[in-house]
């Protein structure tokens, strides 16, 4: 017998087989000039099987959330037919090789609906057994409250990105689509196509209300990323109220204005979903596609369906009646029928056959394109190998660390063919433009310099998407003071262990005349508080070389490069090799004391020169320690840390940095810094006014 929803699906399938026109549920909005050519016959080959799978996916979500007494039922129940179409028929993937280069990527931007994703990964045959599905939100399970990327622990195959903060997944999808365009333009040839997959994102009203999503959507439309399909779970419900209480804009019109194709469908009509998806996938028209799926949140449990209550676990109390209505057996929780497993086993065989065909194409591509194959398979260089390619800097000369970065970036660009850089409209100020590699745009997807416009938060989410994609090493830049706009994305990168680099320049009150709005005094300290983010503030050009090399070779987390606008002296108290090696360790002795150790000065960034000059006045017994990266220093052995900063000397240690002082008291009993906002004046005058001078440091240290 059929459940109510399965019967409805069958009726919809027959209805869809009768006619299809511009006015049908999968048509573009009437003002679009597109004419969809769609066959009249039904698009879903086995509607009954997929309807049954949809209801069983609902059941998995109901049972797991009920067991946890925690989680979001609304999306897994409301989007079950969307999942059935994607995993049961339309997407290209191989559960046995979840990192296959040419797989379709799926991102659940509405990460609170994570049981949707876990249910379908299990049913589709990924290595996510029913036991793990039932352990939803249990400590150390592979089914955490929100999706966590496979680079995290424990490994959950099929998870393409860490989502939960709303809107971030949309930006991730844009980043993946851009990465795929860049990779395809670089690697594909006239004879062999090895990259032609699509990126699919499922989002909700909450995602689209977030500004980060709009920034990313604008970028995607402008750059014509037509390999991107955004499926919008449009159910008219948000957590507090019905969506109409907080939004009244026409979302479809907004997307059309930003260069997207927009289709609207009944999100429970699998024929309509299929038609729209195939149109989006097959129409290489220079437009990413938004498919507005009109759904009923919590569909399957009548008591919560279509209400705000479906946003949480309110449906738990209706577990038994809901399962009965879905036609699921009362005596077997987490039920998936043999018929459904058989269907997906058969579907997997079809997918694997296409995967095997691709492998043959890939082998032929490698044989015919040795240069491109070598590029793709080139091992990542070490920091030491990269530094060997970087020239040196004249001792005593003045070089802004942003300018030093511009120089050392060039060999990185040459040695790492999949290194991508970009800026939020500040290439000229951030000095991170790579020469000779072209600009990424709708006219040149092979380019490697990205122009994000004034969209810092969108840039951060797009960078994460590129890093999640897995082929590229990426960086993006803006002024340090605007890093706050990016912080939601930076946190996801740190949490996920993504190797993203942030090039943040104009690092302190040294910015000068632009004034306190552009002088970050509290920002670096805040960044250092974030777990798994390496914050590198080099003190001269040689330290900058090592900082860049470290940032692009760090495999398990992001790095913030904090660079100066003003010139800094290339210090002469130790060799370039010592400075570079010491920077990789996070901290080192930049000026060794002569004779008995009397005191220690810690100098960071532009204050390294200040500390060295103060030590010269204090006497030969004073040591200067440079600490460009606290996080890397803390990873060193206890013996090394003690050799640089002896615990017994803490009372005689003074630290200096043009920023917030509190954290430095871990290493020093005295700190010279800036605990108030800056001033609008030339940089040297601001330093003087804030007391960051050699006499002030000498007086404090004595």
In short:
With 702 residues, the protein is of the alpha/beta class. Helix content is 41%, strand content 12%.
Can you describe what's shown?
The protein is 41% helix and 12% strand. It has 702 residues and is α/β, with parallel strands linked by helices. It starts with a helix and ends with a helix.
Low-confidence stretches: 7-40
Q: Radius of gyration, rounded? A: 28 Å
Average per-residue pLDDT, rounded, comes to 93
Classify the secondary structure makeup into a structural class: alpha/beta
Number of helices: 27
In total, how many beta strands?
Answer: 18
Helix content: 40-55%
Largest sheet: number of strands, sense, barrel closure: 6 strands, parallel
Distance from first to last alpha carbon? 88 Å
Strand content: 5-15%
Global geometry = elongated
Strand order of the largest sheet: 8-7-9-10-12-11
Topology:
Blueprint: H1 4-16, H2 47-68, H3 74-78, H4 80-90, E1 105-108, H5 114-124, H6 130-134, H7 168-187, E2 199-204, H8 205-209, H9 211-222, E3 228-234, H10 251-257, E4 261-266, H11 270-282, E5 289-294, H12 319-325, H13 338-368, H14 370-377, H15 383-388, E6 398-400, H16 401-415, E7 419-423, H17 427-430, E8 449-451, H18 456-469, E9 473-479, H19 487-496, E10 500-505, H20 523-528, E11 534-536, H21 541-553, E12 559-563, E13 567-569, H22 576-584, E14 588-591, E15 599-603, H23 607-618, E16 622-626, H24 630-634, H25 638-644, E17 653-656, E18 670-672, H26 683-689, H27 694-701
Parallel strand pairs: 1-2, 2-3, 3-5, 4-5, 7-8, 7-9, 9-10, 10-12, 11-12, 15-16, 15-17, 17-18
Antiparallel strand pairs: 6-13, 14-16
Helix pairs in contact: 1-2, 2-4, 2-5, 4-5, 4-11, 7-9, 7-18, 9-18, 16-21, 18-19, 21-22, 23-27
């Amino acid at each position: 017998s059929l459940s109510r929803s399965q019967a409805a699906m069958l009726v919809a399938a027959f209805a869809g087989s009768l006619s299809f026109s511009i006015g049908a549920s999968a048509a573009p909005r009437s003002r679009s000039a597109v004419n969809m050519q769609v066959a009249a016959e039904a698009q879903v080959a086995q509607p009954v099987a997929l309807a049954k799978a949809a209801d069983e996916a609902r059941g998995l979500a109901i049972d797991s959330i009920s067991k946890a007494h925690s989680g979001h039922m609304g999306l897994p129940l409301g989007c079950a037919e969307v999942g059935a179409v994607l995993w049961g028929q339309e997407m290209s993937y191989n559960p046995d090789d979840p990192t296959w280069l040419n797989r379709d990527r799926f991102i659940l931007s509405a990460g609170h609906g994570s049981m949707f994703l876990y249910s379908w990964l299990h049913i589709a045959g990924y290595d996510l057994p029913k036991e793990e599905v039932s352990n939803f939100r249990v400590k150390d399970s592979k089914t955490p409250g929100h999706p966590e990327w496979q680079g995290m622990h424990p490994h959950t195959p099929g998870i393409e990105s860490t989502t939960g903060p709303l809107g971030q997944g949309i930006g991730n999808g844009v980043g993946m689509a851009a990465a795929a365009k860049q990779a395809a333009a670089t690697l594909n040839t006239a004879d062999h196509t090895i990259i032609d997959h699509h990126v699919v994102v499922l989002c909700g009203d909450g995602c689209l209300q977030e500004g980060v999503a709009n920034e990313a959507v604008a970028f995607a439309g402008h750059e014509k990323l037509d390999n991107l399909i955004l499926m919008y779970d449009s159910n008219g419900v948000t957590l507090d109220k019905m969506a109409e209480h907080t939004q009244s804009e026409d979302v479809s019109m907004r997307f059309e204005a930003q260069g997207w194709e927009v289709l609207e469908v009944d999100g429970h009509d699998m024929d309509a979903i299929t038609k729209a998806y195939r149109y989006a996938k097959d129409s290489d028209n220079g437009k990413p596609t938004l498919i507005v799926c009109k759904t009923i949140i919590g569909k399957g449990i009548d008591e919560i369906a279509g209400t705000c209550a479906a946003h949480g676990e309110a449906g738990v109390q209706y577990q038994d009646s809901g399962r009965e209505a879905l036609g699921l057996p009362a005596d077997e929780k987490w039920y998936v029928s043999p018929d459904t497993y058989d269907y997906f086993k058969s579907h997997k065989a079809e997918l694997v056959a296409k995967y095997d065909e691709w492998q043959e194409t890939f082998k032929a591509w490698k044989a015919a394109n040795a240069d491109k194959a070598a590029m793709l398979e080139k091992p990542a260089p070490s920091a030491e190998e990269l530094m060997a390619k970087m020239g040196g800097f004249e001792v005593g000369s003045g070089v802004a660390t942003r300018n030093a970065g511009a120089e050392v970036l060039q060999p990185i660009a040459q040695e790492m063919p999949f290194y991508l850089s970009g800026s939020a409209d500040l290439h000229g100020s951030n000095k991170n433009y790579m020469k000779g590699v072209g600009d990424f745009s709708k006219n040149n997807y092979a380019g490697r310099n990205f122009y994000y416009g004034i969209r810092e938060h969108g840039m951060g989410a797009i960078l994460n998407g590129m890093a999640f994609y897995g082929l590229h090493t990426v960086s993006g830049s803006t002024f340090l003071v605007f890093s706050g706009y990016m912080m939601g994305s930076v946190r996801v990168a740190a949490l996920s262990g993504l190797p993203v680099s942030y090039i943040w320049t104009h690092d302190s009150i040294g910015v000068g005349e632009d004034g306190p709005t552009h002088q970050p005094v509290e920002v670096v300290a805040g960044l250092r508080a974030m777990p798994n983010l390496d914050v590198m503030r080099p003190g001269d050009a040689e330290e900058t070389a090592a900082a860049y090399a470290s940032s692009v070779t760090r495999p398990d987390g992001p790095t913030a490069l904090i660079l100066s606008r003003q010139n800094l002296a290339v210090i002469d108290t130790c060799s370039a090799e010592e400075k570079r090696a010491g920077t990789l360790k996070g901290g080192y002795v930049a000026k060794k004391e002569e004779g008995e150790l009397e005191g220690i000065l810690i100098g960071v960034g532009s204050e390294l020169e200040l500390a060295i000059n103060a030590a010269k006045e204090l006497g030969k017994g004073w040591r200067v320690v440079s600490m460009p990266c606290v996080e890397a220093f803390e990873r060193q052995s206890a013996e090394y840390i003690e050799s640089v900063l002896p615990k017994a000397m803490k009372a005689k240690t003074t630290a200096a940095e043009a920023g917030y002082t509190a954290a430095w008291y871990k290493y020093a009993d005295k700190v010279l810094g800036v605990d108030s906002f800056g001033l609008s004046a030339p940089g040297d005058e601001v330093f003087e006014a804030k007391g960051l001078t050699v006499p002030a440091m000498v007086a404090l240290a004595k």
